[in-house]
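The aim of this short unit is practical: by the end, you should be able to scan a pair of folded records and say something sensible about each. We start with the first protein, listed as its amino acid sequence and then its structure tokens.
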Amino acid sequence: MRRKKKEQLLSLMQEYGEAHTELERLYQKGDLEACCELLTTCQETAVAIGEQIEEEGSGTQTVHRIEEYCEDLYESHHAVAVQDLGRVLHSFSKLRTQWKEVEKTFQEEIQVILEIVFLPYKASMWDSMESIYLAAKADPSCHAVVLPIPYYDRNSAHELTTKHNETNLFPPDLSCKSCEEYHLQDVQPDIIYIHNPFDGGNAVTSIDPRFYSNALKKNCSKLVYVPYYVSAGGIHSFQLNFFAYPFVDYVVAQSYNLLPYFSSLIKREQFIVTGSPKFDQMLAVCNAPAKMPEAWKERASDKKLFFYNTSIEEAILYKEGFLNKLEYVFHQFKDREDLCLIWRPHPLLEATFSSMLPELGRKYLAIQERFIQDGYGIYDDTESPEQAMALSDAYLGGWTSALATMFGITGKPLFLLDQNIHCLPDQEDYLGTLLSGRVDELDGNYLVTEGSQLFGRGKDGIFHFCCRLSEDSEKAYGRVFEEEDRLYIAPLHSFQILVRDGEGGCRSIPLKPCEVTLSAFADSIRVGDFLFLIPQTYPYLVRMDFRTEELHYVEVPESFFGVDEDGNPNTRGYCLFRNFLLFSS
């Protein structure tokens, strides 16, 4: 029985206590006609309750108890009619006892069945929900429904254009229902799972507006967002504030370490930290026998397979450079006897060029067509990437993509591409990838590298690894300041100053939280007994007193530093002059 129906019936049952009290009052008052009418009402209502219970299945003990109660009602009615005081008092007492048994049996016997609806929109993204669905399907207390919803492309004017419905592309064993036949407003599910949190805020596509989160929230008890992405460390700022956040009840999170990156709109008690269904799917595929599509076998035969992943983010950030990288990679793999490239572009990459980069759309389509027609490798347009990743021997592509993180759990090697490099590197060029930032960070005795790793200079003048400061895959911290036997490590895109003592212990000094993540701070500088954190996207200039660790905040107007050509905050020059910290704006 659905939860809401059980709650309604239970509420109705609990009204019988008042009805029994009213029966006694009416009889003592001598209003026998009203007393008989109330007994009849109790009878009719009890029969109606029994009929609703039998809709869930016959032969229940609860209905048997209700039938016994109805027999007692008949006996009470007859006792009232003949005005047999002794029989009336006994029968009224029996009614109370019998109905309490009805309630008790109903509570114990009738199990709640949760109606759980999954609303994917692209078949290739089903992996972000699948393991949750399988768990719900296997649970006898749940009824799981997969309801693929339509989505639209957008043009450069942000208008909805081509409509897509991928219901037929989902695995047949899901028995997907049609959103035109399954009406959420009538069913009122207990839980709805979504993995598209953008509502109308996506520049490339839009799900059908009927399924925006504000509308869904009106038609369910709980709305749960399952992120499609997975992360090896930090989360980018564009993943911070989604249109759905004010309406979701819960968010499924991959790790406790990622919670600080989410919007403050999501309270800690709203997170369900259970890992990612995408990891579950990846491991399940890897543990199963690999199945290579027939069309791939000839080209992949006896070769090492490289899974080449290209993302939307890379296309938007690097534009022409992204296309140049495509051509460079394809050229390196063309006609190789020992290697084969499996290229999997993001499912929305072509639509992204059409709506956001129309001036480069033709060039991208030409490169795509040449790759397929000239046989540079295997073009993977299957519904999900897991099978191709399981078959591949190595990963090639950007490091910010969720697929890079997913591939990483297979234990196979990852080759991460720099979209700014379009030629073979010199022998020692790789050394520059360990450090990013200012060269003068090397002047001190400590430095932080990519991956938030702390290195200390030894007596031999060589930097040696000390520890990893966080699980963030990026450089979450910048400069390191020595004060007596302590190290103060200034943040870049973290909201805390780390303090490491001489024995290796570590604690943190938390900063005011705010709605930014990546590049919260541009740099840090020491002025006497004070540490200044230079903001980039963080709304405050922060000063910490080394003597007391007291923090002081100076609000920085949003327009103070200006923005770069892409509209991102841009901290310009700053210096210490005659005890003044000067900024150019």
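Turning to the second protein, read its sequence before its tokens, just as you did above.
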Amino acid sequence: MANANGARRVVVTGMGVITPIGLNVPDFWASMKAGKCGVSELGGFPLEDLKILIAAQIKDFDPKQRLKHFQRDKLVMHADRYSWFAAAAADEAVKQSGLEFPIANPYRAACIVGSGAGGLVTYEQSYRALFLEGKRATHPLTLLRIIGSSASAHVGIEFGIKGPTFATCSACSTATHAIGIARDYIRNNMVDVAIAGASESVINYGTMKAWQALHVLSPEGCFPFAKRRNGTVLAEGAGILVMESLEHAQARGAKILAEIVGYGMSSDAKDMVNPDIEGPNEAMRAALKDAQLSPSDVQYLNAHGTATTINDANETRAIKTVFGNHAKNLAISSTKSMHGHPLGAGGGIEAAACINAINESWVPPTIGLDEPDPECDLDYVPNVGRKLDVTYAMSNSFAFGGLNAVLIFGPAPA
């Protein structure tokens, strides 16, 4: 079935997440409804001289338990932590979709699972082994653990996907780009089915030192749009969707969760760190145009909302520019206030939040928003989520380097 432009419609039939506030979608959503914060004191590695001592870590993930039933991928248990997260989230999404993998024609399936950083846990362990402990060699699989396409390869192997299989890497926009590209592959009849999203595991001593040097981490917490915000909080996790053409999903009687109706992307082409308003504007407008929607058609916007001083004010200005008078009617929230900033995985995790917002007529809050910044004067759903009939939800991802990607989700087609 095609849209007005003759392109195939693309739907979501499965979701999977690994987050600091829930290791599956139901627990993740329940934590959001409770306004749970996943930020806590750092642990699990030597803190040495770190000044930033908080993060949103995943502390109770057991790969042996979550991945013990994997059959085709014989090396998954030897993978990096970021690949474990991706594999577990993909497994949840595939189970919810009800798809039998490999599909009848495995070349008609895609696997696009990205990572902004790849196997940083393995990097850290290997550097310590070589340079601090004096070992003369690394683990034989070190290279395969590190590379940013490993998660996509592991997922593709387990589910027998022989079509396009690769990773995206665009910092904080990685998952959103992966989902958007997969949507376009299905829409343009290159494939019928796709597994797409991203995964990150970046919380270790070296990464914390690097981010600390950039002066964008908060020592206190993640408070998007608040007057007291003073930086973001690093997180880890994964967010994965299973997507199909509408006719493929309907032919097998699948339960459809949502439709991906719009996708837009742009680049600021101005600065590696400081965001510009024109790039986010264009990405949001492109997504609306692609969806054939007016700004007033959108009820909920999941903001990039990193809680840095510059990002939140810039994103607020961009929303006002694109949505005009409707901006004040939008329910906007940054769920990073609860699950932290999982870098490239954020767009996949936040896609699940948008889809649940549509299906449950409830929008998650921005917690910790006791006193808004005067520059951030829109409705950010402070502290407590609310009931709201959501037909269309927009999800923003704006990355270092000015790499912008936006998705719009709509209801399951009748």
